């Protein structure tokens, strides 16, 4: 599944009983207007078990064609929800949320046109998800109770002090009670975002990475993700102070501008920061209203780290050129979320 590149707004499709007998699926007009020009006429919808569904995209109508096989293969009856992710490339990722609002246990199947075996789906490889619906008639509560199936799968590893991440890169601490099985984080989340409550929104998506991080996405009544202003290092009247913990810089070289760039080295000057990342890891980079997910990877000698997947999309979207300097800054307790600023190269400055 694509997991690097431009981070686009997620969207959710509620599956009705009648949908399961149709071959077409409409996607949100907001998504089509922003990203429809990036999607090819034919691509795949991919699940985390390796299942790849070939679909055709009718850009004018905002329709995906080819879903009948999908509904039949996964025996969807109606009442399920499909969560879609897109990283600005060729394919869409999809996750199936069951009628209990928790991500399902995926069957070991692939599409009948595929010749490979299904992949193994684990908590450590992609995390696990659940949805929480906002009740507009109730005042803001701090605690939420995840679905029982989510707790059964994740409760033993869920941290008592989880790090909660928002889609603008802000990170704060929540709490989890093993006695009650409830997560407390909504009041702090509203404080960080400068919100009085969550009544303007329809639902929240919680994604636990299996280690200690829970990412929260907020959706409007159209089941389209709401992107909040700000960045990991931004400070305003409503959010607490976030201290700059570390940084690194990259000066754009000719080799970074190749059509197929096979890695952008991060100087060993920033080794202490790079050592905070796993051998293969991901960082989130924010600029203005946009963000990108970049894969970082240690070279075989472990002496140098490179940016791999996602670089080309990042470079093109920011309009980088040779000589430009990208400065990445992150905050304490958040060594994977960076604000990027670009110093443009001008020949006259030389």
TrEMBL record:
Highest taxon listed in the record's lineage: Eukaryota
Q: Which InterPro entries match?
A: B3_DNA-bd (IPR003340), DNA-bd_pseudobarrel_sf (IPR015300), Plant_B3_domain (IPR050655)
Question: Which UniProt keywords are present, listed alphabetically?
Answer: DNA-binding, Nucleus, Transcription, Transcription regulation
Is DNA-binding among this UniProt entry's keywords? yes
Q: What SUPFAM superfamilies does the record tag this protein with?
A: DNA-binding pseudobarrel domain
Tell me where it mainly resides: nucleus
A GO CC term? nucleus
Name of the featured protein: TF-B3 domain-containing protein
User: Which species is this UniProt entry from?
Assistant: Heracleum sosnowskyi
């Amino acid at each position: 599944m694509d997991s690097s590149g431009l981070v686009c707004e997620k969207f959710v499709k509620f599956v009705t009983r009648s949908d399961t007998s149709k071959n077409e699926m409409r996607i949100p007009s907001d998504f089509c207007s922003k990203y429809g020009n990036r999607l090819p006429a034919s691509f795949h919808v991919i699940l985390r078990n390796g299942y790849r569904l070939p679909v055709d995209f009718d850009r004018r109508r905002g329709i995906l064609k080819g879903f009948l096989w999908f509904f039949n293969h996964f025996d969807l009856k109606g009442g399920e929800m499909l969560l879609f992710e897109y990283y600005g490339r060729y394919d869409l990722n999809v996750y199936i949320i069951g009628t209990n609002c928790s991500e399902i246990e995926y069957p070991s199947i692939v599409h009948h046109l595929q010749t490979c075996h299904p992949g193994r789906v684990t908590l450590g490889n992609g995390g696990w998800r659940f949805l929480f619906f906002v009740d507009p008639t109730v005042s803001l509560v701090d605690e939420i109770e995840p679905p029982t199936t989510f707790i059964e799968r994740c409760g033993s590893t869920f941290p008592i002090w989880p790090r909660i991440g928002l889609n603008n890169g802000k990170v704060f601490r929540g709490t989890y009670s093993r006695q009650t099985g409830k997560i407390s984080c909504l009041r702090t989340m509203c404080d960080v975002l400068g919100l009085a409550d969550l009544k303007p929104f329809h639902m929240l998506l919680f994604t636990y990475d299996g280690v200690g991080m829970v990412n929260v996405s907020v959706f409007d009544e159209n089941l389209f993700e709401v992107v909040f202003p700000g960045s990991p290092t931004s400070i305003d009247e409503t959010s607490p102070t976030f201290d700059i913990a570390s940084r690194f810089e990259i000066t754009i070289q000719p080799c970074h501008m190749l059509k197929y760039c096979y890695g952008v080295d991060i100087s060993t000057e920033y080794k202490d920061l790079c050592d905070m990342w796993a051998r293969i890891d991901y960082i989130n980079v924010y600029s203005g209203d946009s963000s990108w997910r970049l894969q970082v990877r240690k070279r075989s000698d472990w002496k140098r780290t490179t940016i791999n997947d996602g670089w080309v999309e990042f470079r093109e979207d920011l309009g980088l050129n040779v000589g430009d300097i990208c400065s990445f800054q992150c905050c304490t307790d958040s060594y994977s979320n960076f604000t990027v600023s670009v110093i443009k190269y001008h020949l006259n400055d030389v």
